[in-house]
Amino acid sequence: MSELDRLLSRVPVGATARADLAARLRGADRHYHGEAHILLLWRRHLAFGTGLALRGPPWETLIACAIAYHDAIHDPRRHDNEAASAQLWRDARPDLPARDVAWVAGTIMATADHLATRREAGMEDAAWAARLWLLDLDLTPIGEEPATFIANAALLRREFAHLPEAEWEAGRIGFLRRLDAASRLFRTDALGKAFQGPARRNIALELGTGG
Fold first, then answer.
1. Residues with Cβ < 8 Å from 8, sequence gap 6 or more?
2. Domain locations in the chain?
3. Domain 3-207, CATH 3.40.50.720 — does that match?
4. What integer is the mean pLDDT of 116-144?
5. pLDDT tens digits, 159-174
6. Neighbouring residues of 38: CB distance < 8 A, sequence distance ≥ 6
7. What is the C-alpha to C-alpha distance for residues 39 and 179, in angstroms, rounded to an integer?
8. E-strand spans in 15-113?
9. Could you give phi then psi for residue 100, rounded to 5 degrees?
10. Average pLDDT across the chain, whole number
11. pLDDT tier, 53 (very low <50, low <70, confident <90, very high otherwise)
12. What pTM was estimated for this model as a whole?
């Protein structure tokens, strides 16, 4: 069994839905948002979540679901990938309580804008902490070593090959400037300690503001 298959075995959906998801993530057009990205996030959850309540039930299962499905649909030409991925998750009819299905769907939707997400009214502390953890995991690639960060940018450019260079650069630089202006990129201590400094370094180098 492959590493991706082991991860997906934790996701309580039927065999057909699981196979469909695996095929999507292994698509030839998934230069960045594919199997490798999903597995990186899962490995980092396991490595950095040691000792946290997030490594126990039910959160380990729910985080596995959110990681697996958060980029289930990724079409660079559309602007509703997160909503479409959340709907694909719901349509898979996961064998979970309704509130857990809703948490995963809401967390997938939150990845549309990691920095803008806000706590929902009545949201329990554990649910909010788990959502922030997933969002931080998804941002950790910004804190890679510089060579990997640059390689990831090249992979993303391949996914957005339909965009003219000027439009691609404008979008990329705008995104980095927004990150640069944020007072805090990571809102969980374990991931912030490991990735905040390198992420700031990479952003500064790309924007030409590094020393």
1. 18, 21, 22, 68
2. 3-207
3. no
4. 95
5. 999 999 999 999 999 9
6. 4, 7, 25, 67, 68, 71
7. 24
8. none
9. -75, -40
10. 95
11. confident
12. 0.95
